[in-house]
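Entry for the shared binder. Reason: the reviewer on the internal report wants the predicted structure included alongside the sequence.
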Amino acid sequence: MQNLTVDVAIIGAGTAGLAAYRAAKAQGKTAVLIEGGPYGTTCARVGCMPSKLLIAAAEAAHEARHTASFGVHVDGVIRIDGREVMDRVKRERDRFVGFVVKSVEGIPEQDRLQGYARFIDNTLLQVDEHTQVKAGRVVIATGSSPAIPAPFKVFGDRLVVNDDVFDWDTLPRRVAVFGPGVIGVELGQALSRLGVEVKMFGASGSLGPLTDPAIRDYARRALGEEFYLDPAAKVLEMRRDGDEAVIRYVHLDGSEREERFDYVLVSTGRRPNVQRLGLENTSLQLDARGVPLFDGETLQCGNAPIFLAGDANNTLTLLHEAADEGKTAGENAARYPDVRPGLRRAPIGVVFSDPQMMMVGQSFAALPAESFVTGEVSFEDQGRSRVMLKNKGLLHVYADKASGRFLGAEMIGPRAEHIAHLLAWSVQQGLTVAQMLDMPFYHPVVEEGLRTALRDAAAKLAG
């Protein structure tokens, strides 16, 4: 049995763990990075990068089918080769993973420990059967995994999660998607555009990250023009029959239907990877899911020298948030007991559907009723959007009635990923609607639509 003593032990070598390691080392502390699985972040292996590769292929197929409106006619049949699509997805995915692995392997070997860690007490870790680590402080950055509700397990190997999709050798013919959240919408639409018959089912009526009823309804109609989408589906029966998944449900038209699928893609959320950490051996208080209670600003768990960062705390499961939290956790672990609030940027979320969705700042649902005005623009007649035939969309911006300060926005529409950044910067700078309207807007650009929404909000503030 090897014994190791360090200032800071980091469990997990993903985005948050790597950021925590670098932050602790920058403070002059000794640190060890413990990883039980393969190196490579969730984003690179099974998240943002491979999903965008699949989406890029889907966009190419979609654009090729829709050139006639410009007077450009593509002769012949658009042929999608599923094996070629998935081969590129996997090759490029592996390339991105390779960059991450190379970065991790650049960390000194004595600072890397392979194996699964369990707490013996607050600061003593057992790594597999080969090493005990005595740490002054510990950062938990173990990430998360897809959560699979028990009823879906009836499908056996016909059940897949997003991690599995990127290992397909070719595209199936029929896929049912459960969970129209960010991952479900992105993958479901991409598969549909690549020729897969897709049916998407939700339970609560939610869609993506949207909370504004008008924006959500617009998104449901826009996406529903491409594939079957019922965010509040009534599923009557699920079963396995041979190599097929069978689903009986109430169709949007009110009829009862039974359909068969090659796979059922479950995208109903993720759970923090904390079950195997031996947290019962620590002094930490745990919530109902077994996740340590922690301070959202400092990431410290109670008064213990333990910090929880990234997807493992299940708060903001986004790469940039994981990187920020990892840095905060690493710095506070190095400084302990002198812990301080870390950087919290303005909230920003993007869904790479088409049209794209975005949410910035405070959501509609989080705002106190009657305290704000809503500025609106439809992109259906917006100049640049019509030029590009990307004129589906609706944007709502929210402004405080008392101060005129811009509070947040929700949108489905063209170039939402770029507009989201402009608006997130505005939230973080604390700008008012009037100050935002003083900024330059070029012509003709999609961002002129944002100006229209801001002008609408300004008029309501003045009224």
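Summary line for the report: Residues 82-105 form the longest helix (24 residues).
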